[in-house]
Write a structure and sequence with these properties.
The structure holds 2 protein chains of 2 kinds.
Chain A (H helix, E strand, L loop, with lengths): L9 H35 L2 E16 L3 H9 L5 H8 L8 E6 L3 E6 L4 E8 L2 E15 L3 H8 L1 H32 L6 H13 L2 H11 L6 H12 L13 H29 L3 H9 L4 H29 L3 H7 L11 H10 L4 H24 L10
Antiparallel strand pairs in A: 1-5, 2-3, 3-4, 4-5
Chain B lengths: L1 H17 L2 E7 L3 H17 L3 E7 L3 H13 L6 E4 L1 H4 L15 H6 L14 E14 L10 H11 L1 E3 L2 E4 L2 E3 L5 H9 L17 H14 L2 E3 L4 H6 L6 E5 L3 H11 L3 E4 L9 E10 L6 H14 L2 H11 L6 H4 L2 H9 L1 H13 E2 L7 H16 L5 H13 L3
Parallel strand pairs in B: 1-2, 1-3, 7-8, 11-12
Antiparallel strand pairs in B: 3-11, 4-9, 4-10, 4-11, 5-6
Helix pairs in contact in B: 2-12, 7-8, 8-17, 14-15, 16-17
Classes of the chains: A alpha+beta, B alpha/beta.
């Protein structure tokens, strides 16, 4: 009785309602722009979607004077019999006009009600249907998934994205660990280095990518200049790399840029984690004769696993969604589609080719991949996470 | 008396307001192009006080396309919008047949090079149109090539190799521009598909000729994803390359930055002098529009295509006039006498301008074209294999 007593209190209910009122704006925004599209992607993946004028119920059939009808409708004029038939349905002839005409198909619009009628010719018969124009979905079952999985471009996008994620996620994390460890030392100018490593993360991605476009330029790019200078120091010949036009370097170019972009953010999270570790652990380790690297390996690293785990999940999900950088850096999917990623594939299928069903199916596949990997991390990796007690 | 006049004026304003039709016009014209369009629309409204045009700049082409997709899906499209042919095929049923609303004399005045019928219907009219032409460096090759053979000879002579790498290029290609291949293909009297779209014809004898020509040129070519003008501005030496007439300002500006002499010429020809037309059209949506709005939008289209206005638009933007009256007008002849790009663009258009294939799967076909065009200009396989592989992929899309 005591456990559920708070239900009876008015204050409890008021606080609950108040909490939901505060949450409401966020829930509305999330519902409209996240959950609704999310659910719709699943629905759309089972349909072929096109903008069409679809015939509804038949309102009138004529087998007489078919040729006269065709002649008049083809001139954008209305046969008298047709206007009379529609008038009987309450459509004023003054409001009726032809807006589309093909060899055997005409669409009429009723200005008064904004309704449409479609006239279809089938041999010697003309049928007038009520009609509607808009997105029409034809159920196709798993066909969109089959089509995506058989599409060599989708396979390429999957491979490219997997390589990108497989390389950039661990490399960024390892570098972030090194940087965080360095920033955790009593270095001179530490605030500057912290700011410098974090700055790329807060700079708009399009601006960063455009700058990197210049850095990667084959002829006047900074990267080739630096590599050439280093090679020159050691007496080597260096032929300029075509970072943005050679398929071998497109993905590495993308990885280098994004490692640079995210390493500061990850280092800052890890640094915060390092600074929260109780000093007593270190003092005890030193008393026991532990060296710098050993202490880092046996104390710092295990106690950082919650932050590492968090970063793994976040960067894994983020990396699978790479898109803007590809668009800005390569103006397309890159040389020989070497930088074609899954999200770029989804974008082009939806907004270039108008295959909304196929794009939705590809989104569902992407969701499934991220979901399975996240689940794997939650169940398997988390066993290795040590929380400070 | 004064009170009476005030009341009269208010009543007059009220009547005009009541009788006014408002239409929305979505476009992607920024900067000087947007200013020229605004001027024209304001002139139209001054001539037609009962029509109010809400001219809405929607960002670049990509943004405009996405907004139109969303608007059609939500059944809230604008009255009038700029659009590429491959967008139009996506929402063909939502458009109005323009020949029901435009005067026949105007339709007949549109240059045949721009005449496009979607499944037999006239649903668009040309608006901002440019065409592929040849840009060339007069210091490297003073006389522009006129034939395919001359083009290859120029590319070969201009190209310079040092340490096994090209350091000066005969020509330049972008993998994202398969329109250049389509131009070569049409010049060889080939096509992607047969006229009835039932057979893939890209790998026939004409297709092979076009592919071999592109492969030969690519031996001396700079191949890059970025704009050729960007390479030019950075001092990269290129003999001559195919680009749109609308890119004239960018190419000339890059040439000025790099301090090199650049000129423009019609494309080298083969069996004909075909060149692919670029740019968007205008179409009227029927969804949620009244007949009065559609008539007003058609009136605006007719106004934009009027001789003086199509010439004004072309003069201010670098695009081409789209009607016969416009292109043969005295005003345009005077502009051509002064402007190199106006003259060459017009010459190229009349010599063999052709438009996009109006197939509903054209964008998928173009994506396949980009893949194989890139293989061709990077010499990743023989032209025969590349064309056969392209044909196999087009077969699944036709």
């Amino acid at each position: 009785m005591q456990r559920f007593g708070h239900w009876r209190r008015k204050r409890f209910w008021w606080e609950t309602v108040e909490a939901y009122i505060y949450l409401l704006p966020t829930l509305i925004v999330l519902g409209l722009f996240t959950f609704y599209p999310f659910v719709n992607a699943f629905v759309y993946s089972a349909y072929n979607i096109r903008t069409r004028t679809v015939p509804g119920p038949v309102v009138f059939t004529s087998t007489e004077g078919v040729e006269d009808w065709v002649r008049l409708l083809s001139r954008g004029r209305l046969p008298e019999e047709l206007t009379r038939a529609l008038e009987r349905r309450g459509v004023s002839p003054d409001n009726l006009w032809v807006r589309l005409r093909e060899a055997n198909r005409w669409v009429l619009k009723d200005e008064g009600s904004n309704d449409e009628y479609i006239v279809l010719r089938d041999g010697d018969t003309l049928k007038v249907h009520k009609a509607a124009t808009g997105w029409v979905g034809t159920p196709v079952g798993w066909a969109n998934f089959q089509r995506a999985l058989q599409d060599p471009d989708f396979a390429k996008a999957l491979v490219n994205t997997s390589v990108y994620v497989g390389v950039s996620v661990p490399v960024t994390l390892v570098l972030a660990l090194v940087i965080a460890t360095l920033l955790n030392q009593a270095l001179r100018g530490r605030p500057f280095f912290r700011l410098a490593t974090f700055l790329p993360y807060i700079t708009p991605v399009v601006a960063i990518t455009m700058v990197w476009g210049w850095i990667y330029d084959r002829h006047v790019g900074l990267l080739n200049y630096l590599l050439g200078s280093v090679a020159g120091l050691f007496g080597f010949q260096f032929s300029f790399l075509d970072w943005l036009n050679d398929a071998r370097f497109a993905l590495p170019a993308l990885i280098i840029m994004n490692v640079w972009r995210f390493v500061g953010y990850q280092a800052l999270i890890l640094l915060a984690g390092m600074q929260a570790i109780d000093r007593e652990y270190y003092e005890a380790a030193r008393v026991d004769g532990g060296g710098g690297l050993e202490i880092w390996r046996r104390i710092t690293l295990p106690l950082l696993t919650p932050q590492i785990f968090f970063l793994l999940i976040i960067s894994l999900i983020g990396s699978f969604r790479i898109f803007e950088e590809v668009l800005v850096l390569f103006h397309g999917p890159g040389p020989e589609k070497a930088a074609l990623t899954i999200v770029y594939y989804i974008f082009t299928k939806a907004f270039d080719s108008g295959h909304y069903g196929l794009a939705s199916a590809a989104s569902v596949v992407l969701f499934a991949i991220i979901f399975v990997l996240s689940l794997f991390q939650l169940t398997v990796t988390q066993r290795r996470v040590h929380y400070e007690r | 008396m004064r009170k009476f006049l005030v009341v009269l004026t208010l009543l007059a304003i009220g009547f005009v307001g009541l009788g006014q039709v408002t239409i929305t016009f979505w476009h992607a014209m920024s900067g000087a192009l947007g200013e020229a369009l605004t001027t024209l629309v304001q002139k139209f409204m001054a001539e037609n006080p009962t029509i109010k045009v809400d001219l809405v700049y929607q960002g670049g082409y990509s943004a405009l396309q996405q907004k139109l997709i969303a608007a059609v899906a939500a059944k809230e499209p604008p009255t009038l919008a700029q659009q590429y042919e491959n967008w139009t095929t996506q929402w063909l049923d939502a458009l109005v047949d323009l020949d029901l609303f435009l005067p026949e004399v105007l339709i007949n005045d549109i240059l045949p090079q721009f005449d496009q019928r979607f499944e037999g219907r006239l649903v668009t009219v040309p608006f901002n149109k440019s065409i592929l032409v040849l840009y060339y460096r007069t210091d490297l090759w003073p006389v522009p090539p006129k034939t395919w053979d001359e083009f290859v000879a120029m590319a070969k002579a201009v190209a310079k190799v040092e340490g096994g790498q090209l350091v000066r290029y005969g020509t330049a290609f972008r993998p994202a521009n398969p329109e250049i291949f389509l131009t070569f293909l049409t010049q060889a009297e080939g096509s992607l598909l047969s006229d009835d779209w039932k057979t893939v014809t890209v790998n026939n004898a004409a297709g092979m000729e076009a592919a071999k020509f592109a492969a030969e040129l690519s031996k001396y070519a700079l191949v890059q994803s970025g704009y050729i003008s960007d390479a030019l501005a950075k001092g990269v030496a290129i003999g001559g390359w195919v680009d749109t007439s609308a890119g004239y300002t960018y190419n000339m500006s890059a040439a000025k930055t790099a301090n090199i002499p650049l000129a423009v010429a019609p494309l080298p020809c083969y069996k004909n002098c075909a060149s692919m037309i670029q740019g968007t059209n205008l179409a009227i949506f029927s969804i949620k529009q009244t007949k009065a709005q559609i008539e007003a939008a058609a009136k605006l289209i007719a106004f934009l295509l009027r001789e003086d206005n199509t010439v004004y638009w072309a003069e201010k933007t670098g695009y081409l006039p789209v009607t016969a009256h416009g292109i043969h007008s005295k005003a345009w002849q005077a502009i051509m006498a002064k402007s190199e790009i106006a003259r060459i663009g017009t010459q190229q258009l009349l010599a063999g301008g052709f438009g996009q294939l109006l197939h509903p799967n054209y964008m998928d076909m173009r994506s396949a074209l980009i893949t194989y065009w890139e293989q061709l200009i990077k010499a990743q396989d023989t032209p025969e294999n590349i064309m056969n592989n392209l044909a196999a992929q087009l077969n699944t899309l036709k």
